[in-house]
User: Fold these one by one.
Assistant:
Number 1:
Amino acid sequence: MKTAPDTEPAGALDLAPEHKRGFPLKSPLLAASGCWGFANEYANLIEMSLLGALITNPISRRPRRPAGGAHARSVAGGVALHTGLPNPGLSVALRRFAPKWRRMPCAVIVHLALHDAGEARKCVERLEDVENVLAIELGFRHDEDARAAAATVATAAQGLLPVVVQVPFSRTAEFSALAEQAGAQAVSVSAPPRAALTAAEGWFEGRMYGGGLCARTVQVVRELRRETDLPIIAAGGVHSAEQINALLSAGARAVQLESVVWIDAPNVNAMLQSWKH
């Protein structure tokens, strides 16, 4: 089993040094998909140049409307969200955001929410020549068919960009093995866990965000580090420098910052500054 070094020399963090384009990061701290928008929405609050990369909100091949009904519910230690992954679709996203991506002071990882391998081939091909796009992150539902997911990953991995698989929280070992076999360059742990809450209008289901999740994320990373040779990008409730260090000590090579940007932007800047070379 390969083991990541305890520390990375300045400028030497490359998650896929054998890949045709590599996967270089100037910082191990990334902006997580679903929390930071599609481009530079937080540029007035955050020192974006200190990010290793911005991971865009999920983008599908065709447009998606917001989910109907309530979108958020408070839970102990955080919030549960159900949005439906609204986005304009890839064609409009490229027209609207690619010029901004080119001017971003950090690299961009485009998060794709796809239906099948055919969509993966078409979408990845369109992203390969977009300036400053470093990699693709593929997101999957918690109930995704494993064989279909494997075909999607394998097709995306045939392209020129490194592929990160965002593994469902409840299926980390299964999807990490799938990602490794299908040719991905890294896994991100993980898509937020799901919550079900009772409400006056019936059941509310959504993904959970909040600082109370990080201890569970640390445990998942520790377990997964024994199962895969792929670099692990940790995500889930990271709201402090201490939590970042815990995840890196557990075996993560990089860490995604998510809901902390909604509630404590000054702290995000402090965390990014702490990793400035």
Number 2:
Amino acid sequence: MQGKAMPEPNAMPVYVGVDVCKEWLDVHVHPSGQTLRVSNDRVGLKRLKRMLAPLPVARILMEATGKHHRAAQRSLHAADLAVAVVNPLRARLFAEAAGTIAKTDAIDARLLAVMGAALEPAETAPPPAALEEVCELVNARTAATAELRRRCDACQRHIERLDAEIERRILAQPDMARRHAILCSIPGIGPITAAIFLAGLAELGTCSAKQAAMLAGVAPVANDSGDKSGRRAIRGGRMPVRNAAYMAALSASRHNPDLAAFAKRLKNAGKRPKIVIVAVMRKLVVLANTLITQNRLWTPIAP
């Protein structure tokens, strides 16, 4: 009969360990000790199947290695060979239980073959191609999420270093340190917002309240034409300062007694939430300008 050679009916079954990496497949046949290294591609798999064809293979063991083992598993399964894919940790624990500490590709292949003979793990059928593709996408998403967390952590550490350097340089200049302390004394304004005000509104203390509000972009701008009186809205100004003032206003609306009462009066008067926040922003900027002009810290009761 031509074609595939059939093993002898009473031949001793053999167990094959396959150590998988991206480029190579290291193969060990137990108990004969026969070894082979082939490329982890279609050509290498053809060589491997030719080697295994005359052997009474009971089980082929390989570790789950991401996507690198899948082509070999699918090809060997299609050739009617029983393949078991095992958890790498389980294989490592078996090796340690067998007294083997050293780890090479050839050693791993031998131990996988011995593990197959000792434990005879169940055959693992390859998943459908569609499911495999979804698994690839899910794994890619998991990796991207981990990378995003790593980058966020790196950015957070960088921001913390910048904060420390900003604080150091502000404290090194007495005049700037005083202005910073005045701003930080206002409930609702923290060290970072105070630094943004210092850098973005250097005119604080040297301009009028209206000018300070216009520079920060928190002063309503007229929108009138002829008999028409349009709705006033804030526009222009310095965006970093306006953004910082917005966050400070949210805090001040709850923790600054005067501004919390001011916000409550506006709400009770039916003002929309956005208008209330903008009004508190303007009050904060005007207050900051006034305190720096007078060179005094904020106190609950103004002198």
Number 3:
Amino acid sequence: MPAPRPYNPRVLPIAKLAILLVLFLLALRRGLDLGLVLAGATLAVEALFPIPIAAFAGAVARGIAGRGAIELVGVIFVTIALGKIMTEAGTLRVMTRSLADVIPDYRLVLALPPALVGLLPMPAGALVSAPLVNDAAGSKPIAPEARTFINYWFRHVWEYIWPLYPGLIIGAAVLGIPVRRLALAQYPLTLVAILVGLAWLFRHLPSDPEDATRPREAARGARGLAASVWPFAAILVGVFALRLPILAALAATTGVVAIAAVAKGIAPRRLAHLVAESVAPRTLLLLLAVLAFKEALSACGALDQIPPALDSAGIPPLVPLFLAPFLVGLLTGVNQAYVGITFPLLAPLMRHAGSADAMPAPLDMSLVMFAYVSGFLGILLSPTHLCLVLTREYFAADFRRVYRLLAVPVLVLFVAALGLLIVR
């Protein structure tokens, strides 16, 4: 009988992270406030991966009061304010009505706004499209969880290929390949994500007989779209053509939208009230808790220990290529995190076998694709992903029901990635 494998202390971090994740899920299952759950999880990180208290306190302080945190909080609240002002001014209603003039099925009208806004990489960008989905849904009996799924899913269909997303840029830089090569390796996943989303729409939402008989004016719809989408176009121009910081582009656009709203007859006092409403204490707590948790994980070195722990356990290479990015994505909700942390460590496993002695083997882009998608599946399921938590908050949806809606589409994406890995 072979001797049992000796205890490997490097596997312990996986067990600790598993404990943290289980506690996370149990707390959410009991309906506890996510901000408070994350605050408790931050303290649990220090208990499981102890570092000096001063270092831990410094990490938390950086997370909630650093320049990046302040900018992120600013982006979130300006985004919320922009959505509220556009809703008050009727701009979002014009957009959805214009889409309905051009597209003969309300289900596609629901999907298009988050997909279009998804071309603009920004923190919690789903908040920009959430009011559009709400307006497109109108009085139709679409549950909050279904609205959350539609907005969340279609917002993220481009993440595998759109060359402006930081995850793709960092991944290509780490592996020393052009972004175009990484995007080309992954384009089937965007097609699968779009098809899965459309299949969900047409299966779960009934057709509306009025769609076939409602009069449409394509020219009017085109004019309405041009008049209503300009704020998004302005943000894109500001960020990518003028190279403005996202907060500056958002703030400038929101200012112009506010001036246009006043010109339409909306009282300045009403606009000030909408801006004040955007700064919700509960949302602020949630944001700060997410930032503190992520910084604590990084400072305690918990995430850095995942790939070597999996490797030292003697697990086949395909398992760490899935599990390491998936766990980091699930715990952080940030694609830059799983790419930046795991790709440098997993890069040797992403190469073809049987290379020459001195030269590194060429990259196997199927393995790169599998690792990238695995991490992003963790992102999609992460209870710390800002797009998910803030969209759920916007629609007042039940977290457990949202996860039930996400389960099968995420599984289909995983099977598709695995199938591509096998056939390539």
Number 4:
Amino acid sequence: MDTDAVPLSLPAPDALRARLPALSQIESQVRVALAEDLGSGDLTAALLPAQQRSRVELITREAAILSGGAWFEAVFRLLDPAVTLQWEAQDGAPIHPGQRLCVLTGPTRALLTGERTAMNYLQTLSGTATRAGRYAAAVAGLPVRVLDTRKTLPGLRLQQKYAVLCGGCHNHRIGLYDAILIKENHILAAGSIPAALAAARTGNPSVTIQIEVENLAELAQALAAGATLILLDNFSLNDLRQAVALTAGRAQLEASGGIDLSTIRAIAATGVDRISVGDLTKDVTAVDLSMRFV
């Protein structure tokens, strides 16, 4: 993610602000979302006088972790820079039912036109952060990192990756371009685990290389070939424990495959270093928020 400074009124911990995409990326994403909803113009908002102004409060109806303020802000900034916004909660913070999150003031037309697009971002990303928060809490006290995957909603990759951080979990690779993950079909195409690893190392001296194995025998092959980051795909708890013992610190181990809130604590307790969970981003439930005109 780009660490360019983002001039927002959104209060957020410095660590999270540093992980926001560049302002140009945020606004590009929001323009696409607005075009999808706005088309040739908001026929209903146009019924109101252009000079009319309003004050709006954003309220949460349920407990959650807030995320997505940068995209929420960008919607109204792009529609009409005369809209002002004052936050009363910050990204990454727990919020409770009935809490006021922010106050918006400005042209009524812009407030009405941007309401749904802005809410879609904030509800979805807060839902992602809230789910990530549950997973982070489930492994609290254990020396393991819970990571997301590429199983994100189409068009929301960077947004959901940011929301995962707001919830206290971590990012795996962003896409196919920033790290190598050698999976079963790559190994079959290359001919063997050692051959796949050798091919990955050729011409990629500074790129993270991870290889997936499906049993303890393949783990032994990967270790013998010098793998330093290994994904254990759908291992049983007993096999995870054996994998940790066999590896003895020679590589970082990541458990993956069908993991949910009911199983993650036991998996973390086996001693693996990382756990990747597609459920963080692919089965998100939007948080119930409301924009109320005052």
